[in-house]
Amino acid sequence: MKSIADTIRYVPGVGIAQGEGNRDTPIFRGNSSTSDMYVDGIRDDVQYFRDLYNIERVDVLKGPNAMVFGRGGSGGLINRATKQADWNNVREMNFQVGSFDKWRLTGDFDQAINDSVAVRLTSMWEDSRSYREGFDSGRWGVNPTLAWKLSDQTKVTLGYEHYQDDRTADRGVSSFNGRRPAPTFPPSSAARTAARPK
Q1: If DSSP codes are grouped into helix, strand and coil, which group holds residue 82?
Q2: CA dihedral defined by 52, 55, 56, 59, rounded to 10 degrees?
């Protein structure tokens, strides 16, 4: 699973809309929303496609949640819990190749410095095209975290994420005269000349 749409596909009562081809738009029990998103319990209502390269789990809450999460949340909300430095010494890399020039590389490195300090770095790079001409997507992200145990009851976690997503919005193929999809390739100059009224 690489996107919010993948994670909620099998959650009863929650669907996904197209989002105009450039943002996550979940539908909670019939209520469409682009702002009821959280990361580690903090509101993340920027409108973009969220990647899961640095996510430990995704929590989907259905029903009104304004009592806990403040404004909004009338139909439900989605909270992403990020991967944190946790003294497990993880080493993981994934490389994917797919149709239409899709390339994706992810990495996850967790290292304990000592019994009190640990660091973790998650990162992602992706470049892809589509079966339709004119669409391309290039994105990358990096998320370092540092955990510091001050005592048995206190731990301080610091983190930073830089995520960049440069894509052409893909809104699908529109209809033409209400009957069929419009041509997706520009006609040749010969076809334009032949179609020109005389």
Answers
A1: strand
A2: -80
Q: How far apart are the first and last CA of the chain?
A: 55
- What is the tens place of the pLDDT at every residue in 40-89? 988 888 888 899 999 999 999 887 766 677 666 778 889 999 999 999 99
Return the CATH architecture of domain 4-82: Beta Complex (2.170)
C-alpha of 192 from chain center? 41
User: Which pTM value belongs to this model?
Assistant: 0.76
Q: Which amino acid is at 137?
A: S
Pairing relation of β-strands 91-98 and 102-112?
A: antiparallel
* Element of type H or E holding 107: strand 102-112
pLDDT tens digits for 124-166? Answer: 999 998 877 777 889 999 999 999 999 989 999 999 999 999 8
Separation in Å, CA 188 to CA 111, 194, 197: 58, 10, 16
Write the DSSP symbol of residue 71: S
CA 130 vs. chain centroid, Å, equals: 17
Please check whether residue 54 is in contact with residue 125, taking contact to mean a CB–CB distance below 8 angstroms.
no
Torsion angle (degrees, nearest 10) of CA 50, 53, 57, 60: 10
Q: Measuring CA to CA, which residue among 70, 67, 58, 66 is closest to residue 26? A: 58
